[in-house]
Specification:
By secondary structure, the protein is α+β, with helices and mostly antiparallel strands. The protein is built from 3 helices and 6 strands. Strands 3-6-4-5 form a 4-stranded mixed beta sheet. A two-stranded antiparallel ribbon has the order 1-2. Helix 1 packs parallel to helix 3.
Length: 142
């Protein structure tokens, strides 16, 4: 995907994200529902904050790939956490997990602390917006 990075100087230099990404007019919009570290049976896999973050991002990428996209097609990530202090304390290993899956692609991002998530035992949920290249790829119906 050829996003144009939009980082106004007046907002300061972002680190590990971008203020904005402008998608090309020819792209197809994919809205990815919030994903936790759920397996196919609906059970949370990871026991640590970082494990659950990684698993949620893996699940986001599974949806993007199923629709014919890749990590670089993601223009926005919203990360919901139940413990902002745990997020802050885990920045280094979170960054390592992120780069393992996303490389050096940094979409526009937001992190929000919430009081709870729908999936029991989940401490992280990630939703995404991706812009996919033109062309249809059959997507399996549920």
């Amino acid at each position: 995907m050829s996003f144009r990075i939009v980082n106004p100087g007046a907002l300061g230099k972002p680190r590990g994200w971008n203020h904005g990404l402008l998608a090309p007019a020819w792209g197809r919009l994919l809205l990815v529902a919030g994903q936790t570290d759920r397996d196919a049976d609906g059970k949370i896999r990871g026991s640590t904050f970082v494990e659950q973050f990684r698993g949620a991002l893996v699940n986001v990428l599974a949806v993007v790939r199923e629709a014919g996209g890749a990590a670089g097609d993601i223009g926005r990530l919203t990360v919901y956490v139940t413990d902002l202090a745990a997020y802050r304390a885990s920045r280094r290993p979170l960054g390592e997990a992120y780069r393992e899956l996303m490389g050096r692609h940094y979409p526009a991002m937001a992190v929000l602390e919430v009081t709870g998530l729908v999936d029991e035992g989940a401490v992280v949920e990630i939703e995404a917006t991706a812009v996919l290249p033109p062309g249809e790829r059959p997507v399996r119906d549920a």
